[in-house]
Design goal:
This protein is mostly helical and 76 residues long. The protein has one domain: Arc Repressor Mutant, subunit A (Orthogonal Bundle), CATH 1.10.10.10. Helix content is 41%, strand content 5%. Strands 1-2 form a two-stranded antiparallel ribbon. It is globular and about 50 Å long. The mean pLDDT is 92.
């Protein structure tokens, strides 16, 4: 089932090389993930990027989770 948060993720061929972005802005999902993995808190991200909302950060996390949830087939 598609989450309502996925509506915040946009992919446009002419923007950021077609990479997933937040709400049509030039802020990529990977930018959010990189900040989080570097130890930034949600509050710090929101202060540094006032155009973002809490649900944007959650959407990036949920999108990454969905994109990495696939079976890996290993031949024996």
């Amino acid at each position: 089932m598609k989450s309502r948060l996925f509506d915040r993720i946009t992919i446009e061929p002419g923007k950021c090389g077609g990479r997933p972005c937040i709400r049509g802005m030039r802020i990529r999902v990977t930018d959010n993930l990189g900040l989080l993995s570097a130890g930034a808190s949600h509050q710090e991200i929101l202060e540094d990027y006032p155009m973002l909302e809490e649900d944007d950060i959650l959407a990036a996390l949920e999108y990454a989770t969905a994109e990495t949830d696939h079976a890996i087939l290993i031949s024996a």
